[in-house]
Amino acid sequence: MINLSSSALKIRVILPPVDMRKSFDGLTGVLREFSIANLNAQFLYAFSNKRHNRVKLLYFDRTGIYVVAKKLEEGTSSWPPAGKR
Asked: What residues does each domain of the chain span?
C-alpha cells in the first residue's frame, strides 16, 4: 500500500515527453538524464507522453519502487511546456 500522506512529499514533474512503454528501469534512466542519480523518498516523480493523455508516477518508499499509470479515456492532462534543452 502506498502512503503518500507525508507533508514533506514533493512532486518533481519531468517536462519533456517520455515513452510510456518505459517501466521501473527506463523511468529511472530518464531521471539520470536530468542528473537525478538516486531515487529519493521525499519525491514523487511525474512523467507524461507527448499527447498528454497518459501519466506515470514513480515513487520510492525505501523498500521498493512503485510505478503508477493513468490513461485518460478522453481529453488530456494539463502539463507545463517543456523548455529548450
From this structure: 10-71
